[in-house]
Fold:
Amino acid sequence: MDFQLSTEQIALRDTARKFAREEMAPVAKAYDQTGEFPLDVIAKGFELGLMNMTLPVELGGLGLSHFEQALVVEELAGGCAGISTSMIANDLALLPILIGGSPEQKERLVKPFSEKLRFASFGLTEPGAGSDVAGLATTAVRDGDHYVLNGSKMWITNGGHADQFTIFATVDKKAGRKGITCFVVEGRPEGLTSGHHEDKLGQRASNTVSLTLENVRVPVANRIGEEGQGWQIAMATLDNSRPLTAMLAVGIGQAALEHSIAYAKERKQFGQPIAAFQGIQFMIADMATELHAARLLSYEAAAQLDAGQRNTLVSSYAKRFAADTAMKVCTDAVQIFGGYGYSKEYPVEKLFRDVKLIQIYEGTSQIQRLVIARELLKA
Amino acid sequence: MKILCAVKRVEDPDQKIKVKPDGSGIVLEGMNYKPNPYDEIAVEEALRLKEKQGGGEIVVVSVGDDSFVTEMRHALAMGADRGILVKVSSPTDSDGAARLLAKVVEKEQPDLVIVGRQAVDDDQAQTGQLLAEYLGWGQATFAAKVESLESAEEKSKTPGLQIEGGKVKVIREVDGGLEFVDVELPAVVTTELRLNLPRYASLPGIMKAKRKTIEELDAASLGVDITPKVKVRSLSSPPARKGGIKVPDVATLIDKLKNEAKVI
Amino acid sequence: MSNVLVLAEQLEGKLKKSSLHALNAGKQLAERSGGKVIALILGKGIGDAAAELAAHGPSEVWSADDAKVEHALAETWSKAVEKAAKDAGATYVVAASTSQGKDILPRVAARLDAGMASDVLGFGGSGADVTFKRPMWAGSVIAEVEISTPVKLLTIRPTEFPAAEKAASAAPVQAFALPELGTPKTHFVEFRQVKSARPELTEARVVVSGGRGTKGDFKPIEALADELGAAIGASRAVVDAGWVPNDYQVGQTGKTVAPDLYIALGISGAIQHVAGMKGSKVIVAVNKDADAPIFQIADYGLVGDLFQIAPELEAALKAAK
Structure:
C-alpha cells in the first residue's frame, strides 16, 4: 500500500484546503447561526469542480478516484461540515442512478448536474423508518406508464433546494425489502412538497427538510433498475458514500485537533502553557492517534472501491470508527478549551455539534456494528 | 499575444522557518512548498490579459530541479498553456536566473514578460530588473492597480495592466503613491501584491494540466555563465523577543522607540 | 581605488531622508575599504537637494540636473549610475532600499556585471572583506552573504543605519556629465500622491489600540493614531461594550496584527488579546495597573493614566518631527 500522494493528488488536496480555509471557514459561523443556505459558497465550490465529484468522465465528471474524493472531502470538512454536506449531497442522490441506471437514464438524469449548479436529494429515510429503513412505507403504485408515489420522507438534505429527487418507495409492502424500488422524481411536481428547514443541533448550514409525496406521478422511464432492486441499489450507494462520510468526520476531528494544539500552547495556567501538563499531552496524543487510524480506515475503504472490490466491511469499520472517534476528539477539544470551549466565540463547540450527526446519519454507529458483525459472523 | 511568466518554488510563507543550529541552512524537515505568491499573481495577470484579448499563449518558466514541476503544474492548472523547466544542478542567484530566463525569452520571443517582484525565500527582488536589462527592454516594477482587491473590478477579473497601441500601461506602487507609466512592448513587468487575487487551481484545471507539456532544458545547453555572484555564507535567527522594561516617562519612551527599537 | 558611490534620491527637489541613511552606510563601507564616498544625485531642479546632500559628509557630490533625468526611469538612470560608478572607481554602489532604489539598482548591477545584495541590515566580515547581512524569508532568517564580483551593489534598509549627520563643512558639488541615455522604452505618465487616510488594521505599520481603560472614550487613541499614521485597534471588552466597531477588535477572536509598533492603551493584556498582537515587532503598553499582564509581553511599559500619557506622547512625537 503506497501512502505517497501523486503531484495531482497533492494539487487536488491543496485546492480543497485553500477553498475550505478561504471561502468556507470565514463564513461558517454566520451560516451556522442563521441556518441560511450557503448558496454563494456552494456556487464557488461548483466553479472549482468541488461538487459532483463522483461523476465519471463520460458524464461530465473529472474521473476522480474514490481515494481522491476522500482527500478532498477531508479538507472541505475542515472548512465547515454543514457546507460540505450541502456540496456532497448531490453525489448521494446521483449514485443510485450511476449504480443501477441505464445509459439513457445516466445521460438524462445525471449528466446535466455537471453542466450547471443544481441540487438533487436522496430520499430513503422516513419519519417511521430510520435504522429500520427496510420498513419504509412510501408506496409506488403502477398506473399505465407511470407510478404514483405516496408517502413522506424525513431528514432530506438539500430537499428545499433540489429539483431532482431519488426516492425509494415500495411496490409491495408485504414483500419487505424485496418490494423496495428506486425512482427519480424530476423537478418539483405538484404533489411533492418540502417542509420547513429543520432547526438542528449542528451542520446547521445544511438544508434538511421533510418531503411529502401526494400522488406524485413518475414515468416508468424514471424507475432505476427493476422493481424490488431498490434495496440493493440503496445499500450499494451507501457503501460508496460511506468512506466520504467517514472522511467528513475525520476532517471535523482534524480541525478540532489543530485548534486544541494551538490553544494548549497559548493558554497559561499555573505559570505555564497547559500543553506542558501530561493530562493535556495524553489527550492530544490519543486524539491524534485515533483520528489518524480513522483516516487510514477511510483511505482503505475508498481504495477498495477503486479496486472494484466490495467494501462493505471496511467502509463500516471506517464510518463507525471515524464518527465515534471524531465525536470523542471534538468533546476533548471542548474540554481542552475549558470555559472558552463552551462559548460560541470559539470554534470548537460548533465542531462538537457538527460531528454528532455523523454518528447518526447514513447508518447509525449501532447499525454499523450490526453490519460488521453480520459480515464477520455469516456462514 | 505571447506572455511569459516565471514561477519559483518556495517554502510555504505561512510555515515557520527555522535555522539549523550550525547556520548552514534552514530546517527542511516537514517543509511544505508553494508557488511564489508574487509569481501566482503574475500568472493570474497573464490569464486575465489572455481572457480579455480572447486569445494568446501563456508560457511558464521555472529555473530549478524536478521538484519545481509541482509548482509549474499549479500554474498550468490555473490556465497557463505550457511550461519550460530550465534544470540547474544547484540553485542560482538572481543574476543566474535572469541570464537563463533571458535565453528562454530569446527563444520564445514573448510580447510581455510578467514576473513576481521578489521571491519570498530570498527576498532579493532583482530578477525582473536584471532580466529587463539583459534583454535591453523597458521595465515596470511593482505593478498594482487603483481599485482595491475588494472592488467590483477585481471580482470581475479585470486586468490591472492595459495593452494598448503596442505598449503596456502599468500603475506602479511606489513610495508615497502611484506612478503611471507606459512601456513599449516587449517589456518586463514585475507584480505587486495588490495587482490581483490569483484564481484557484480548479479541479478541472488540475486534471487538464496533466496533459499540458513541460519542456525540460538543461541549463548547460543554454550557454550562459551562471556562476553565483551572491553567495550565502551563513544563516542566523533574528534576536528573540526579549523581556520588556518599564520606562519612567514619555520622553524615555520616545527615545527608546526611536533609537533602540527604531520603529519611529 | 576602492570608492563608494551612493545614489541619493529626491522628490520635487527635496532630498529624501532615506538618502542620509544610505550615506551613512556608504561611509561605513568607505572606512572598511579605505576609499571615499561620492554621492550621486539625478533629477531636475535639484540644486537644494544636492546642497543638502553635500552638507552631510560625503567627500564629493556629483549632480546631474537635467530634464533628461527628470523622472527616475530605471532604463536611463542605470546608464548614468553605471558611468558614475566607473568614473568614481567605485567598489561599492549603494542606494536606500526604497521603491526607486529597488527599481534602478539591479539594472546597474547587470550593466556592471556585478552582484547585488538587497535590503542590507548591516555589515560583517573584517577589514576589506565585507559581508552583508540581509533578511530572508520575510525576516525570519538573517543571512550573511558575500558578493564575489569586484564591484558590489547593495540597497540598504534605512531603519538599520542612522542618518548621516551634518558635517563641519559642505562637500564640493560638481556637475556630472550624463552619458548617452538613448531613447527609453519606458515613459513616465503621472505620479499620484496618495492622501493618507488611516491604514488598514492588518497591514498597518503602527497600530494604536484601546482597551477597557479608555472607558469608551477613544479620542486619545484616535489623536495618537493620526499623529503616527497608525491604524486603530481595540480589545474585546471595548467592542463588547459597543464603544467601537467590532472591525477594530484585535485578538484571538478578532484580527491578528503584526505591525512594527503596537501601542496598547488601557489594555490589561488577557491572553485572548495578546494572541492577536504578539507578533508585533515592538509592543508598548500603557496601563494604570503596574501588575497588568500586558507588561509581561510589552517591550516598553509605562505605568500611568492613558488620558495623560497619550496626549503627552502625541505632543512629543509632533515636536520630534
Notes: The first helix of chain B runs from residue 37 to 53. Chain B has a mean pLDDT of 94. The longest strand of chain B covers residues 57-64. Chain B is about 30% helix and 30% strand.
